[in-house]
């Protein structure tokens, strides 16, 4: 049942009663579960042939005897195949996260290395967008997390920072720890986020009008996936932002859970 409540006030503002509305949302929940199952099934079926395409393109790229111009064309196929693969895995993750808590494989790992690798993966995109990518990380930070999933969070935050920051700007990735938690912060000097949008950023398929207007690629899943992963670890994700100045996304994870 979905319940909503509202107080009823007289002309003077005096409290006169309350109205409660109960709505049966069983059918709606069932329809959403079917939609998520369908998305998961289709995504899974798309991933197999696409992985094969990406693999063969990589093999072709390794050939030393490519005719003129073909290397560039293969690069375009490779880039787009990987974009599609990423979209498919976002859709799959999102459908799975909607169905229940994210399953984690927690292992002892060096979080500094995990964050460094994930952030450095965005270096080529940052370079071609004319952005400085600064890493402010300790040499080592041992902790117990699902390294693959935490890398996905950092990857999403850094990719967003790169996407939403105009050329000449800076993206900074910071990592440190207090006695109980690790803290990751991704700061950019980008377009910023309007106060009205801040609460909705982490919901599935939300994109700001600004992102749509500027034709920045994306479907609005990255931050909802990041939040599911952080919360599955017992952590929190928050944003501070000023329009036209930039944004900082902060993640706090318990050191060992
Ligand atoms: P996507 O980037 O695919 O649209 P996300 O879930 O990652 O989806 O982000 C949701 C929305 O949050 C984006 O469409 C954008 O409006 C806003 N956003 C996310 N990160 C930033 C950022 N660093 N700077 C400005 N806006 C951002």
Automatic annotation (TrEMBL):
Stretches of the chain forming a coiled coil according to its record:
none
Source organism, top-level taxon: Bacteria
Which positions fall inside the Histidine kinase domain? 41-257
Q: This chain belongs to which protein, by name?
A: histidine kinase
Q: Where in the cell is it found?
A: Cell membrane
């Amino acid at each position: 049942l979905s319940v909503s409540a509202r107080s009823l006030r007289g002309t003077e503002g005096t409290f006169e009663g309350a109205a409660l509305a109960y709505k049966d949302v069983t059918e709606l929940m069932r329809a959403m579960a079917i939609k998520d199952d369908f998305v998961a099934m289709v995504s899974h079926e798309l991933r197999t042939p696409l992985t094969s395409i990406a693999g063969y393109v990589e093999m072709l790229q390794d050939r030393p005897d490519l005719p003129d111009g073909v290397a560039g064309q293969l690069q375009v196929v490779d880039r787009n195949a990987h974009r599609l693969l990423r979209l498919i895995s976002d859709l799959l993750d999102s459908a799975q996260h909607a169905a229940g808590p994210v399953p984690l494989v927690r292992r002892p790992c060096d979080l500094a290395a995990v964050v460094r690798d994930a952030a450095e993966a965005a270096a080529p995109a940052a370079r071609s967008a004319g952005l400085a990518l600064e890493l402010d990380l300790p040499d080592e930070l041992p902790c117990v997390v699902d390294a693959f999933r935490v890398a996905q969070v950092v990857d999403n935050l850094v990719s967003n920072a790169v996407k939403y920051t105009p050329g000449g700007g800076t993206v900074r990735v910071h990592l440190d720890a207090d006695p109980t938690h690790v803290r990751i912060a991704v700061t950019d000097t980008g377009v910023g986020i309007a106060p009205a949008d801040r609460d909705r950023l982490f919901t599935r398929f939300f994109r700001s009008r600004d992102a749509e207007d500027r034709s920045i690629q994306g479907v609005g899943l990255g931050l909802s996936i990041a939040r599911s992963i952080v919360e599955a670890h017992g952590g929190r994700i928050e944003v501070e932002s000023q329009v036209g100045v930039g944004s900082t996304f902060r993640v706090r994870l318990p050191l060992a859970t």
